[in-house]
Amino acid sequence: MELVAEQVVGLGGGRLLVGIDGLTAAGKTSFGHELAECVSRAGRPVLRATLDDFKKPWKDRHLYDRESGEGYYRNAYDYDLVKRLLLDPCKSQGEASCALCGIDPLTQRDHTSVVTPVAADAVLIVDGVFAFRPEIDAYWDLRIWLEVDTELSIARGAVRDVNWAGSGAEEIHRNRYLVAERIYLAEADPMPRMDLVIDNSEFARPRLISRRTA
Fold this sequence. Notes:
The protein is α/β, with parallel strands linked by helices and 214 residues long. The chain has one domain: Rossmann fold (3-Layer(aba) Sandwich). Helices cover 36% and strands 17% of the residues. Strand 7 and strand 8 form a beta hairpin. The protein is globular, with a radius of gyration of 17 Å. The two termini are 19 Å apart.
């Protein structure tokens, strides 16, 4: 984690945007929190956000398919909202604040009016599936991919989501989320653009697989 933080800080001054992607349940959110702590200890102000907080509201779900794998990939996330509230303000030195959340995915409460100051040298760390889709790929100064096996992704996700999905959790992960990920990997082809690829099969022992240097 310290090695990754060093690479982030080594990108220089000014605002930096770091994207963390990987299969569902790869450990993106926890990794982002730990990376934020390391970057903060290195002396940089840090902001944390997750793309899950910029999904389209459930009240509009009748307008589009979000239940199939393809529907989830095409329709679940509101990329115009994440650009307008989060990525554009953090990328522009002329903006002093941003919103770190759109619609809370659990409570469905609207947080779009809640803003957070953005320092001139802030590091924004964002985790989420499909982080390197064409709609938002150009924003990132550093791209991180957490690598896990597909079956491990399904198993972790099923355990994580059993409270709301019940016995159908594994089926949802296999037939919706994994299908969506495969479409993403085939269409967006994000892997050649990764700056860091990290094997996160063991949460306590992440392993650097590849690192692209300038």
